[in-house]
Fold:
Amino acid sequence: MVQGCEKPQFGPLMRRAPRVSYRVGDIASTLKEAGTLALLSFGAGSQTVNDPRMLQVALECFDAPAPLEIWQVDAPVNCGTEGALRWSAGGGWLFAAIELDEREHGGPESAASSAYAQLRQFIQQRSEQHVLRIWNYLDAINQGAGDAERYKQFCDGRAAGMGAFFAEGFPAASAIGHHGPAHRLQVYLLACDQPGARVENPRQVSAWRYPRQYGRTPPSFARAMSLPAQDVLAISGTAAVVGHASAHNDDLDAQLDETLLNLEALLASADMPAGFDTHSPLKAYVRHTIDAPRVRDFFRRRLPGVPVLLLHGDICRRELLVEIDGWRYS
Ligand code: 3EB
Structure:
């Protein structure tokens, strides 16, 4: 019996959301903790072990030592591999990851298509069929002109590989350029056995409605996803995009201010209280190493107490210098 509670915290179908946190720690002991669903390390020099729940993300971290990112659920966790795919599941939640060498799949477009097709085929035979959040990392993301830019090829392949699986709406996502091994595509996701609620940003045109100038295939993502759990928002990569246009080209400080306005607009749109706090782990993807101290200073001033990982990553539009994503827990 729960006492002193005005209303039930969770409806009968509500899940308890995975807790996402950053921690400087030891991989082996973290993997042994009950309920560890996923463990991410950052950068080529980071520790890693051969466990389906472990992913070494190809983005370098500007913090030393680089923390680990841990996803924890309140349930026993199973894990395994299936072809190139690694997965773990527990408590109604599923982590799945795939890493492909684009050269083995005929380039960035077919690699993205293959990655998404493999993830889709795996998810389709699971009970956790609702993909809520996806991260995509590819190298040289801005290489190539116009429709031949690698990011745009990735968008084409992603949409092809998704097929009709996301006909009812896209998951929240990030797509970032890494500076790790050439041709390596990394895609990982969080899915659940219950659907989330997609959230759009009234300040921005929905990405899947971007006009033709941004590529043949508009980016397939929602601005945020409200999890099927009490007041948890998974926030997509958010940058200084207003309407469909990039704002404040090449002005880092103005882009950070605009990005924060977009993040606050998303919280309002999701009916969540304003502001981020110690329970809101965020990531900032910073294009130029030289900008990292200024981005860190922005977080200290404007988002004090918010856990943030500063990562070296390229944003999918050349003029954008920074992008922020993460989680907002009530
Ligand atoms: C934007 O607002 C910035 O292609 O999955 C942000 C988040 C961006 C996800 C994606 C792209 C993606 O359009 C770019």
In short: The chain has five helices and 19 strands. The CA atoms of residues 151 and 316 lie 6 Å apart. The chain has one domain: 17-329.
